[in-house]
Amino acid sequence: MKFNEVIGHERIKQHLINMVKENRVSHAQLFAGPEGVGKINLALAFAQFLNCHNRKDNDSCGECPSCLKYSKLVHPDLHFVFPVVKSTKHKNPVSDSYLTEWRQFVLENRYFNIRQWFNFLDADKQGLIYSQESQEIIKKLSLKTFEAKYKVMIIWLPEKMHLAASNKLLKLLEEPPEGTVFLLVSDNPNEILGTILSRAQMLRIPSLEINEISQALQSEYDLSQDECDRYAKLSVGNYVAAQEIIGQSEERGYFFEKFVSMMRLAYGRKLFDLIDWCDEINRQSKERQKNFLDFALRLIRENFMMNIQEKELLYLTPDEENFSVRFSPFINDDNVLELSEEFSLAHSHLEQNGNARIILMDLCLKVIMLLKQ
């Protein structure tokens, strides 16, 4: 990937280019920022520029043998680590177990998130970077470079790394083999082991600007300027979200339907129907359950903004707005914080592998009480 294929972040691109030109490439860098802003795209573009045989002033050439291999993600000195899932085929998986699927997914989806990756794998479990991955990393990096100046190890979402793998990675990060560059790409750097954070140079990647997303949407979709501007605003700086809003993805529609159903049943105190609702959500994968809670948290925030008449701060699709006009009076100063805390707590309990059915039923009971405030 070339820098000119990455949306926005011109200042950060120039910083990375200058780092290479001035020969001050840090051996461990952490690209940290919100989901969907192009962090892994920047990491890939930086890695390609780093090993390009015929660098231009502000980008890789895109034509040399190294760039051609990078464009297909098959360069022998480019290595990936990413969350994977256990299956009947892969009982002790490492990233290489899914390398073919990973290359296909990344090449087909320029911008993506972990939910889309697990959906692509048709996973029904939470994914991790398992402890055995550390041995694979050590083995790969113990080899000399095949044809490039630098070996590049891109670790996508190191916060998903098992503690044992993280601990084994510490010495490599502190004293990597010569010519090795680690590029860590994180959505939630606060969840990364502190000793790893201290060994990496952090580069903060902010949300994309509305005009940057709008321009990118215009080049990718057959939409008017006004439509692109609206979708860009709704995305809140997240290009993946903008794409999903345009496509009205099946999952987003499902989450909206379940949120509306939950709130109506809770307000009507229909306990038996809520039990059925919990059973339906319980049948979804753990990742999908957590994604629903994230979606619900966002709608609670938007409804509170609508209630207090902050229309400039609203980020709702037409369907969501039609529902919120009627629902927003029930999200107010008396319950918005507690509702947000309960949904966040449920998310945390799911992260800790709690019983989803019990967690969801407890959440529904709390919502019944809070909606009456």
Number of domains: 3
* Uncertain stretches: none
What is the helical fraction, as a range of percent? 40-55%
Name given to the CATH architecture of the largest domain: 3-Layer(aba) Sandwich
- What is the general shape? globular
What is the CATH T-level topology of the largest domain?
Rossmann fold
The secondary-structure class comes to: alpha/beta
Just give the CATH class of the largest domain.
Alpha Beta
- Which oligomerization state do the chains in this entry correspond to? single chain
Give the full name of the CATH homologous superfamily of the largest domain. Answer: P-loop containing nucleotide triphosphate hydrolases
Rg calc: 22 Å
Order of helices and strands: HEHHEHHHEHEHEHHHHHHHHH
Mean pLDDT rating: 90
**How far from one another are the termini?**
52 Å
What are its keywords?
about 375 residues, alpha/beta, Rossmann fold, Zinc Finger, Delta Prime, domain 3, 3 domains, 5-stranded parallel β-sheet, 17 helices, globular
Structure, described:
This protein has 373 residues and is of the alpha/beta class. The protein has three domains: 3-204, Rossmann fold, CATH 3.40.50.300; 209-247; 248-371, Zinc Finger, Delta Prime, domain 3. 53% of the residues lie in helices and 7% in strands. The protein is built from 17 helices and five strands. It has a five-stranded parallel beta sheet with strand order 2-3-4-1-5, with helices on both faces.
